[in-house]
Specification:
The protein is mainly α. Helix content is 62%, strand content 7%. It has a two-stranded antiparallel sheet. A two-stranded antiparallel ribbon has the order 3-4. A hairpin with a 2-residue loop joins strand 1 and strand 2. The protein is globular. The two termini are 29 Å apart.
């Protein structure tokens, strides 16, 4: 932003050109902000909260407010009965056809690329997160107020130093470019040809069916625990890594080979991914959280390999994660 300010005395076109790398930094900052919201950037919850607050200021986002809403988005993504938390307005064909002419125009306007990637980002960054809604918790309200006060202080300081006009000439292009790219990234995660949407009971039926397979196959060799969302933890005491991997592969294949009944006239086939980490008597991990983190890294490794894969935590994976 310093270079953008200096470029104002030369040519505003140079300032606008510099807005693109500055927007790239803003997007990278938002990724860190996102990870702090998930509590995954640092091991320390306090460190995640502190860094989340400051990265949130750069993104014009109240950290707790956004992370709370984003957690609900993760819990309801793809659920037709629980839309509206941090997602793009999406209707089924039947829902669209049932709309009035005026609401169809609103829907098509909202999803027009010019509006969705041009107007919507500015609305979210500058307006939507500046106030809370009825029913929001005290923490959400305080999060919003803290961020608003800090942003007012930043804008005031900029006005007293470089002037409000110069500040807006620098900040608005960054918000427009970075916001448009950010909304586009969120959009393509959930809006593509094979995006999967279903009614809420379908997800419950699938989770119950998969849990039943896990419990039957694991049996008295271990414990199956629902970890949240669509994730499970399988504990296998006194089990070598090779055996755990073998069991994971068997579970993967069994889940993928079956059609799971979700209604009297509908069956669905799904695949799973597993991440394996072993804690031996050598004391590989200091805490249970470290063990879960290792299994999570192995799970990401499995997902990178495609569908229906098993990843195994290793010293090489640990070294990569530490870099």
């Amino acid at each position: 932003m310093g270079l953008m300010y200096l470029a104002l005395d030369v040519s505003y076109w140079i300032t606008l050109a510099l807005a693109f790398p500055a927007a790239g930094f803003m997007i990278r900052n938002f990724i860190v902000f996102h990870d702090c919201g998930h509590g995954s950037f640092f091991k320390s919850r306090k460190a995640n909260r502190i860094l989340g607050f400051f990265t949130g200021l750069i993104a014009f986002m109240p950290s707790y407010y956004w992370s709370h809403q984003h957690a609900k988005h993760h819990a309801t993504a793809g659920d037709l009965d629980h839309r509206g938390d941090g997602d793009v307005w999406t209707l089924t064909v039947q829902e669209y056809l049932a709309l009035s002419r005026w609401k169809r125009i609103c829907y098509r306007t909202y999803r027009n690329p010019v509006f969705l990637f041009g107007v919507v980002p500015l609305y979210f960054f500058l307006v939507y997160y500046r106030y809370w809604r009825r029913g929001d918790s005290v923490r959400v309200r305080w999060s919003t107020m803290r961020t608003n006060v800090a942003l007012v202080a930043i804008v005031t300081a900029a006005s007293l130093t470089i002037g409000i006009k110069a500040y807006l000439m620098i900040q608005l292009p960054i918000l427009i470019v970075g916001g448009s790219a950010g909304v586009w990234l969120f959009y393509i995660q959930h809006q593509f040809e094979h995006t999967y949407w279903e009614r809420h009971p379908v997800g419950d039926c699938l989770l119950q069916a998969i849990a039943q397979i896990l419990e039957i196959r694991v049996g008295d060799k271990g414990e199956v625990i629902r970890f949240g969302g669509d994730e499970f933890v399988v504990l296998l005491p006194q089990t070598p890594t090779a055996t755990a991997v073998e069991i994971s592969n068997l579970l993967c294949n069994e889940v993928a080979s079956k059609s799971h009944s979700v209604s009297p006239d509908q069956s669905i086939q799904v695949t799973t991914s597993f991440g394996c980490a072993t804690h031996s008597i050598k004391g590989d991990f200091e805490t249970s959280e470290d063990l879960l983190e290792a299994a999570d890294q192995a799970l990401y490794l499995a997902k990178q390999g495609g569908k229906n894969q098993v990843g195994v935590y290793s010293a090489e994976l640990k070294a990569t994660a530490m870099q």
